[in-house]
Amino acid sequence: MKAIVYRSTGGPEVMALVERPMPEPGPGEVRVRVRVSGVNPTDWKARRGSRGHTEGVEQVPNQDGSGVVDALGEGVDPTWAGRRVWIWEAAWQRADGTAQEYVVLPLRQAVPLPDNASFELGASLGIPALTAHRTLTVAEGAPERLGPGGLAGRTVLVAGGAGAVGNAAIQLARWAGATVITTVSSPEKAALARAAGAQHVVNYRAGDTAAAIRAVAPDGVDVVVEVAPAPNAELDVAVLAPNGTVALYANDGGDALGLPVLPLMFGNLRWQAVMIYTVPASAKDHAVAAVSAAIADGALQVGEQAGLPLHRFPVERIADAHAAVEQSAVGKVLIELP
Length: 338
Hints:
The chain is α/β, with parallel strands linked by helices. The chain folds into two domains: 161 residues, Quinone Oxidoreductase, Chain A, domain 1; 149 residues, NAD(P)-binding Rossmann-like Domain (Rossmann fold, 3-Layer(aba) Sandwich). The chain is built from ten helices and 15 strands. Strands 3, 4, 5, 6, 7, 14 and 15 form a seven-stranded mixed β-sheet that branches. A six-stranded parallel β-sheet has the order 10-9-8-11-12-13, sandwiched between helices. A two-stranded antiparallel ribbon has the order 1-2. The longest helix has 16 residues. The relative contact order is 0.15.
C-alpha cells in the first residue's frame, strides 16, 4: 500500500511516498481504508520535532482522517465491517497516522460517519472539533457534554473565528444555544465567521475591540475560546463576565502570559489551558459523542458556505499540503488518498 513517511524531523521535504506492507488489525482493532486525511498544525509541528522523534524510525503523519472499515481484529463486532468512519488521534504516541491508504487503530478511535456526511467533513473533525468541544465545556457550570440548549443563556467569544478550531467552536456553540461573538482580522475572515454562524463579528484591527464586544454583551462574555492568550490577555480581562473562563488551546503570539491579579480575583475569573491529546479519557468520550450528535443534527459542516474553505491535495503533494498549513492557510487542508 502507499504511505507517506518521514524518518527524520525537518521541513516538508523530509516526507516521502513509499510502499509498505498491508497492516493487519489485532484484538480490539479495525483497519480503515483511508479516503481523506486531514492536516492540523500539530501535524507539521510534530514533523519538525515538537514531540521528539527517534532518528531512522518511520513515522506516518496526520492525526485525523475518514474512510471505510475493511478488516476487523479479534473481538470486534462483525457489524463494523464496511462502516464509514471518522478517525481521531491516529498518530498520537503511535507510528501510524492517516497519510496512508490503510491504517490500523483501536476501535475507540474510529467513529461512525453518517451516510449524508462527506468524507471531507469526517477528516476535518478530530483535533479541531474535539478541541472546540473541550473549550466550551470547561467553564463553571458548563455541561460535560454539549447538546441542544446546553449553553442557552451563555455568551461565547471565539478569538480567531476563521480558523479550524474557531469554526468548530462557533458551530458547536450555536448548536448548543449560545450567543456567539467572534474576532477576526479582515472582512474576508468576517464573512467566513458569519457563514459559520457567529451572530456578532468584530474586526480587531478596526477600532476599540473591547468596546465593540461590550456593546453586544454589556454584562460580559461567559467563555472565551482563545487562540492567542498572550496578546489578548488585556482584552479578555476587559470583556469577561464575573466567573468567566478563558479556555486557551494555542499559543499564537507567544508563550509568556501576563495577567493582573486583582481583577481576576474580584471577578473570580479562570484561565483554563486545553491540550486535547492529554485531557481525561471521560472528557474525550464526551467530546466524541457530542461531535457525533452534532453531525447527525447537521450542525457541523465544512466548505466555504460553512465558513471553512477546503484545500484538497493528492497524497503525492503532501509536502505542499503541510506547507500550506505551516503558512497559516485559511480553511481546512485535506489530502485525498487514491
